[in-house]
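Worked example 3. Consider a protein that binds ribose-5-phosphate.
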Amino acid sequence: MNAKKLAGEKAVEFIKDGMIVGLGTGSTVHWSILKLGELVKQSLTIKGVPTSKQTEQLAKELGIPLVNMSSIEQIDITIDGADEANPEFELIKGGGGALLREKMVASISKRMIVVMDETKYVAHLGKFPLPVEITQFGWEMTSKQVSTLGCEPKLRVENNLSFITDNGNYILDCHFGEILDAKRLNEELNMIPGVVENGLFVNIADTMVIGNSDGHVEIIHK
Ligand SMILES: O=C[C@H](O)[C@H](O)[C@H](O)COP(=O)(O)O
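Given these inputs, the predicted complex is written out as structure tokens:
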């Protein structure tokens, strides 16, 4: 059983006619977007707000009407994936580099539904290195300052080149070990000049839809 597909498709059941829907990024929410595309072709009327260029392209191909974030006040529901989630509904996101737009979209959403397979649901965050988006300007200095919080930041590289986000920034992947105070780390990271945003989502998600390879889906509400 494809656990990501199970979770991704299940979450779409929360979407109702007329909603403005935040469209996350990644291989799990991919299934939600495909499903939404199918439903839109039938009769569902929604407007999507994409969290990355990749998602924007997919939504356009599927005929999902899109709306610019600047022209709306609020999003009804955002569906998005996560790299890790704990029972406190704290997340690590940004494995695909989309964390900034994802956090902006989630922050104006009445509800954020996280879709994942069971391997992402962990007791403590931190096995997955925390993505931190930083400006290209002065990145070495920013990296040094991030390291003082207790990690060895690694500049993300893709195809032998520095990875560049949709916003023209770099990503540092930061191994902090077990993250016991996500709220504090989130604040400390974002206080560093040069840090644009980090992948910790604290007090943002309200529902988790977890697909299991044995075929069952668990839904947990905050
Ligand atoms: O930047 C990427 C996003 O935060 C993704 O939602 C996250 O990495 C999970 O992706 P996937 O569902 O592909 O594991």
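Take a moment to read the result before moving on. The mean pLDDT is 98. The pocket of ribose-5-phosphate is lined by residues 24-28, 80-83, 93-99, 102 (CB under 6 Å).
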